[in-house]
């Protein structure tokens, strides 16, 4: 692989992938396309911007003309599409932008990939396309053949994009792959999501808003393990295939929040139970047998190690998240959680 075009590279997982790729394949060129929405920050890419192998374009993936121009100029070998509206709560409040970016933006990238002969188009998807699993059936897991059964406008938009990607393979022979990963955590995670939100609120001695009873279960994976899984799929994955990515690390929300309190020596009395999310998925759990058996991928970072690294990162990188929690984020926060 020589030139990899990464969309959404100024966001959480995309930026971790940019850094991972530049370090793992120093000869490769990484071309990042990101619209810099509220979730994308150029400061996240500060170090990458000093690397001559890295190029950045502030461009919306829905802007067909601009995207075609970038493809014409850069002629990427591979495209990895991370660009998306990614927050379930925001999708419940305002679904339209989710359909625009996640579905129509994906279509523009697929068309450009066809037009410019991209050798591999990889779609970064989510386990949320499978809907949820009941809490009382710990024997059930999502496999690649679990039917799509979405709950939120976010997951419905991601599932729509997946279907379109697979249709471009079947109809036009575009060499695509899809990964469906469980919840990620780690550096550069936007503080609207559970783990960074709880860390940041703890550090400000602010209430920790837990939805419902906090019994919902997510299967947490350290972000670098996700990047490595995508690397394995890009190198050796079979085209037209979907690969589930997850680490068999199921945790209840309340247990995560308690652990964060403990790590930061904050009292559990900060925990505040708030109204549940509409249509809240109960449990996500991935069966990663396919990627493990076919591509030899396994998660390398335990949750104990990963959460330690993550909490330390937020303690050491206040200059990254402090500016982020002002401005647009502040009005979002007040709308969601009140002025606490
Ligand atoms: P994020 O919200 O942190 O980052 C998204 C990035 O996409 C931002 O930099 C934003 O500026 C950019 N973007 C948004 N709309 C754009 C547009 N129209 N054109 C160009 N850029 C645009 O998201 P994330 O958590 O890093 O997720 C990345 C991808 O991984 C998403 O596709 C998401 O569905 C998927 N995913 C996320 C998780 C998770 O736990 N975070 C798990 C599985 C899959
Ligand atoms: P989130 O990080 O938004 O990821 P997702 O909804 O994509 O899994 O939420 C993770 C879990 O944490 C989910 O069950 C909702 C819950 N949650 C809270 O309890 N309080 C919060 O303030 C947030 C943002 C999430």
Low-confidence stretches: none
**Quick one: CATH class?**
Alpha Beta
Order of helices and strands: EHEEHEHHEHEEHEEEHEEHEHHHH
The main sheet orders its strands as: 3-2-1-4-5-6-11
Classification by helices and strands: alpha/beta
Strand content: 15-25%
- The general outline is globular
Number of strands: 13
Give the proportion of residues in helices.
Answer: 40-55%
Q: What's the alpha carbon Rg, rounded to whole Å?
A: 19 Å
Query: What is the typical, i.e. mean, pLDDT?
Result: 97
Give the count of structural domains: 1
- Report the CATH superfamily: NAD(P)-binding Rossmann-like Domain
Which small molecules are bound?
nicotinamide-adenine-dinucleotide, thymidine-5'-diphosphate
CATH architecture assignment name: 3-Layer(aba) Sandwich
């Amino acid at each position: 692989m020589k030139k990899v075009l990464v969309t959404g590279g100024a966001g959480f997982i995309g930026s971790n992938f940019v850094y991972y790729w530049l370090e793992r394949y120093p000869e490769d060129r990484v071309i990042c396309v990101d619209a810099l929405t509220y979730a994308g920050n150029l400061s996240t890419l500060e170090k990458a911007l000093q690397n001559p192998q890295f190029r950045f374009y502030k461009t919306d993936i829905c802007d067909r003309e601009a995207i075609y121009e970038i493809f014409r100029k850069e002629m990427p070998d591979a495209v990895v599409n991370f660009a998306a509206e990614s927050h379930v709560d925001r999708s419940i409040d305002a679904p339209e932008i989710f359909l625009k970016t996640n579905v129509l933006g994906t279509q523009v990238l697929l068309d450009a990939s066809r037009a410019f002969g991209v050798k591999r188009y990889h779609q970064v998807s989510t386990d949320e396309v499978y809907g949820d699993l009941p809490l009382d059936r710990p024997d059930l897991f999502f496999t690649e053949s679990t039917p799509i059964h979405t709950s939120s406008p976010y997951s419905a938009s991601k599932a729509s994009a997946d279907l379109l990607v697979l249709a471009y393979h079947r109809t036009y022979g575009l060499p695509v792959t899809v990964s469906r990963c469980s919840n990620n955590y780690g550096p550069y995670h936007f503080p609207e999501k559970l783990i960074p939100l709880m860390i940041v609120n703890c550090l400000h001695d602010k209430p920790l808003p837990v939805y419902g009873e906090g019994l919902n279960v997510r299967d947490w994976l350290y972000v670098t393990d996700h990047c490595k899984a995508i690397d394995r799929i890009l190198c050796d994955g079979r085209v037209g295939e979907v690969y589930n990515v997850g680490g068999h690390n199921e945790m209840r929300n309340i247990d995560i929040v308690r652990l964060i309190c403990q790590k930061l020596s904050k009292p559990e009395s900060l925990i505040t139970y708030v109204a549940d999310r509409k249509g809240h998925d109960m449990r996500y759990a991935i069966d990663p047998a396919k990627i493990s058996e076919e591509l030899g991928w396994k998660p390398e970072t335990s949750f104990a190690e990963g959460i330690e690294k993550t909490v330390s990162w937020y303690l050491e990188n206040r200059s990254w998240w402090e500016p982020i929690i002002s401005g647009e984020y502040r009005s979002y926060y007040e709308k969601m959680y009140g002025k606490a």
